[in-house]
TrEMBL record:
Domain of life of the native organism: Eukaryota
Keyword set, alphabetical order: Repeat, WD repeat
Region annotation (Disordered) ranges: 1-20
The species this protein was found in: Coemansia pectinata
WD repeat locations: 51-92, 182-223, 229-270, 316-347, 519-552, 562-594
Keyword Repeat: yes
Alphabetical list of InterPro entries matching this protein: WD40/YVTN_repeat-like_dom_sf, WD40_repeat_CS, WD40_repeat_dom_sf, WD40_rpt
SUPFAM superfamilies assigned: WD40 repeat-like (SSF50978)
Keyword hit for Repeat: yes
The protein's name: WD40 repeat-like protein
SMART domains: WD40
Length: 594
């Protein structure tokens, strides 16, 4: 049973705006991340739910005005409309209005009509009925990809779209049809939003300008604060209205957010997200829902803003990409690393904390924890060490990337299997290569006993003596594919070996005798293996996305968590004998009770 879900942060692409949408109550918001759609609480961002109905990478999601449905789009042009209230998220309808990426979705006031826009071949958008898919208008007048759309929430119905062709198009409805082209911008137009009062709409562009229009006629009223002394110096990617329609907030590539008073036509305040020029602090999306104001960084960080404050009042960090490595310390802190090199820690009571230290953009292949020292192996051929959420040092360079790590109890010695098939003993000061026969693929350690899994599907046992390994002569040969993961029980009396075919074999490391070879429920490569502190249960995670808990006393009994992670479950650990934590390619961290 899922106890907690710590969601990934929104997916971002440089130069492309990101859409965030809040429900009518202003208590939760929704966004796209990987192949999932995440529904997240604005009041407590540690509380989230996910929707996994898309088969392609998702691009946008929007609440209906009623709050009962969410329309979500993906990069293939599919729009799925589904129930937002129940955890089952029952699908209401699915359509493919355009042939390319869906960039934005808007609903009308009745939650009946949906406008979807983006990339396409024959057209860049469409208006249709949410239940039947019947056409309720045409989206035309643009020659390039449409970035955003917004629909007036009262009669007479109106809508506006904006595009890379430098124009906005105003529509009358319903049915929605072309009325006029708005040509005030001189570059890509990134966003267009109707005010909650429906009296106005505002557009924002790469030309760093904002224009205010009459919401009913589409006539230009003025450029917003045209004479301000401190305008944006980068593209404006997103704009959001205050609930009372008196203010707007803009998010820009210049790493700032600005609050504007529409009635008095002036700049109110500026929020500096970062004083550095790093592109990761570019602001690419925002949302103003009730008392909650957030802006999204290119890095995926969610910045909580307050009008009048020059800095974000809070920053919500997390992963955007697949989590490829994780390790749980004895004190209960989970370290995670994602494909883009981002490192986080979790204490399971709230949100992630970024690991401090030198900036890293290389993929972590594996992690191992002992006491409160965590060893991390990266694809740049290095092992780094962390303590108390800080990188505290790095090893000398290795001959290739460490793909599997095991660390001794003292936290000073690491055994590493390298991508080249070599084996090395690593400390903070030196690296010692170990002569072995075969290609090493996985390692585990218990006391001074080291298990090494090989590409020829065998496991051999060694003794760690100073900086080298001495063979004991004990081996396991019951696996049938390349060994991918090894794990000792806490008492060191059993060793589990997972392979590339999804099979797990448990044996005695002192004799090599097989205890069970019947753990064969996975259908793909084993990524993670862990034992409970009472030595009675093992948990496994695999490429098939499932997490399974096994009982050594009754090898045929198992608890299957089907499709725990979309795209594959990368790691699993026991928090206590009844609770496990898993990570996956979806970028999420999930805590399960068994």
């Amino acid at each position: 049973m899922l106890e907690s879900y710590f969601a990934p942060n929104p997916a971002t692409t440089r130069g492309q705006p990101v859409r965030l949408s809040a429900d009518p109550t202003g208590k939760q918001f929704v966004y796209a991340s990987g192949r999932s759609i995440v529904i997240r609480s604005l009041q407590d961002p540690s509380k989230s739910r996910e929707y996994t109905g898309h088969t392609q990478a998702t691009s946008v999601a929007t609440f209906s005005p009623s709050g009962y449905y969410i329309a979500s789009g993906d990069i293939a042009g599919n729009v799925r409309i589904w129930d937002s209230i129940n955890d089952e998220h029952i699908l209401k309808s699915e359509f493919r209005p355009i042939s390319g990426r869906i960039n934005d979705i808007a609903w009308d006031m009745d939650s009946q009509r949906v406008m979807a826009v983006g990339e396409g071949k024959e057209k860049f958008g469409h208006v249709f009925a949410y239940d039947s898919g019947n056409s309720l208008g045409t989206v035309e007048g643009h020659s390039k990809v449409i970035n955003a759309c917004s629909m007036r929430q009262q009669r007479p119905f109106r809508a506006v779209t904006c595009s890379d062709d430098g124009t906005c198009v105003f529509y009358h409805g319903a049915p929605y049809k072309f009325n006029s082209t708005l040509k005030e911008h001189s570059g890509f137009v990134m966003d267009a939003k109707y005010a909650p009062s429906n009296e106005y709409f505002v557009t924002a562009g790469a030309d760093k300008k904002l224009f205010l229009y009459d919401g009913k006629t589409g006539d230009l009223i003025r450029q917003v604060a045209a004479g301000t002394e401190s305008p944006h110096t980068g593209s404006i990617y997103a704009v959001a209205w205050s609930p009372d329609s008196k203010f707007i907030v803009t998010s820009s590539g210049d790493r700032t957010c600005k609050f504007w008073d529409i009635a008095q036509d002036k700049l109110v305040s500026t929020v500096q997200i970062s004083s550095t020029s790093a592109p990761e602090y570019q602001q690419v999306g925002n949302l103003w829902a009730g008392e909650h104001i957030i802006s999204l960084s290119l890095s995926g960080d969610i910045n909580v803003l307050q009008m009048g404050n020059e800095r974000p009042v809070r920053v919500i960090t997390g992963h955007q990409k697949a989590i490829t490595a994780a390790a749980l310390t004895p004190s209960g802190t989970l370290y995670t690393g994602s494909y883009d090199g981002k490192l986080c820690t979790w204490d399971f009571t709230g949100l992630a904390q970024a690991v401090e230290g030198p900036k890293n953009e290389t993929k972590p292949e594996d992690m191992a924890a002992s006491s409160d020292v965590v060893a991390m192996g990266f694809i740049d051929d290095a092992v780094r060490f962390a303590e108390a959420s800080k990188i505290t040092g790095a090893s000398a360079g290795l001959s290739s990337a460490p793909v599997s790590l095991a660390i001794d109890k003292s936290g000073t010695t690491v055994v590493a299997a390298l991508a080249s098939g070599e084996l090395a003993v690593v400390s903070r000061t030196k690296v010692t290569k170990v002569a072995i026969k075969g290609e090493a693929r996985a390692v585990a350690i218990s006391g001074s006993t080291v298990a090494v899994g090989f590409a020829d599907h065998s496991v051999h046992l060694y003794q760690l003596q100073s900086d080298t390994l001495v063979a004991t002569g004990v081996s396991m040969t019951a696996n049938t594919r390349e060994i991918t993961r090894l794990a000792f029980t806490p008492n060191g009396q059993l060793l589990a070996a997972g392979d590339a075919g999804g099979k797990i074999v448990v044996a005695r490391p002192d004799t090599g005798e097989t205890v069970t070879a019947r753990w064969v429920a996975h259908t793909a490569r084993i990524y993670g293996l862990a034992w409970s502190s009472d030595n009675q249960h093992a948990a496994s995670s695999a490429l098939d996305g499932h997490v399974i808990v096994w009982d050594i006393a009754n090898p045929l009994r198992k608890t299957l968590i089907k499709n725990a992670h979309l795209g594959g479950a990368s790691t699993v650990s026991f928090i206590d004998p009844q609770t496990i934590v898993s990570t996956g390619a979806d970028g999420g961290v999930k805590v399960w009770t068994i």
